[in-house]
Write a structure and sequence with these properties.
This protein is of the alpha/beta class. It has helices at 7-13, 75-81, 99-108, 147-160, 180-190; strands spanning 21-26, 67-72, 112-117, 120-125, 133-138, 140-141, 144-145, 164-167, 194-197.
């Protein structure tokens, strides 16, 4: 006899991902959003070894039991472009673009009501795993995302003890042995971390 388990059944069994730690490698995060409220969440999983790194407009206390970690990586960016213009960018995990906050909420937003898209489709919004913990790794800046910063974030996320790495950034398609994201993803996979990544980033 074959039994199937639907997503509808699996989420309650997993307590909606409450012990899962998802790393989002992107443009950072706005920790004040209702999506990242930690109400009714239990303690941070003991496997977590990460940190909440402060910086401009981002305090060590900006993290909570939902957003359990936040880091930023800018050495590659600054090696290419010179010193960061801190009047236009946040030298911190704070999101200056919105993309990272958006992708983090898709993965693990709490239930938010009321929600809508420009006033349409009003209702409740939630991420895929509403009780999962989040760790934000900011690697993207005004001039782009640099391979060395992406690889540093992969290494940090694995060392911090995440279960999943979600990465919605990418460039033109190149052979895997030249693709920093593929190399970083393979290293994370070897360490037992599941990686969800976009397959390039081309097109209009």
């Amino acid at each position: 006899e074959i039994y199937t388990l639907s997503l509808h059944d699996a989420l309650p069994i997993s307590d909606f991902g409450s012990d899962l730690v998802i790393a989002v490698i992107d443009t950072g995060i706005w920790p004040e959003r209702k999506s990242f409220d930690d109400r009714d969440l239990g303690p941070v999983p003991p496997k977590w070894k990460g940190a909440c790194v402060p910086g401009r407009d981002f305090l060590a206390t900006s993290c909570n039991r939902k957003l359990i970690g936040a880091r930023y990586f800018s050495n590659g960016y600054e090696a290419t472009n010179g010193k960061m213009n801190e009047t236009t960018e946040y030298r911190s995990p704070r999101d200056s673009d919105g993309h990272g906050t958006h992708t983090a909420s898709i993965a693990a937003s709490r239930y938010v009501f009321p929600a809508s898209t420009l006033g349409y489709a009003r209702g409740v919004a939630a991420g895929m795993a509403p009780k999962a913990r989040l760790a934000a790794y900011k690697v993207c800046w005004n001039s782009g995302c640099y391979d060395s910063d992406i690889l540093a974030a992969f290494d940090a996320a694995v060392a911090d003890g995440v279960d999943v790495i979600s990465l919605s950034v990418g460039g033109v398609v190149v052979p895997y042995y030249l693709d920093a994201i593929a190399i970083g993803a393979f290293g994370a996979w070897e360490a037992g971390v599941f990686v969800s990544a976009s397959a390039g980033n081309g097109g209009p």
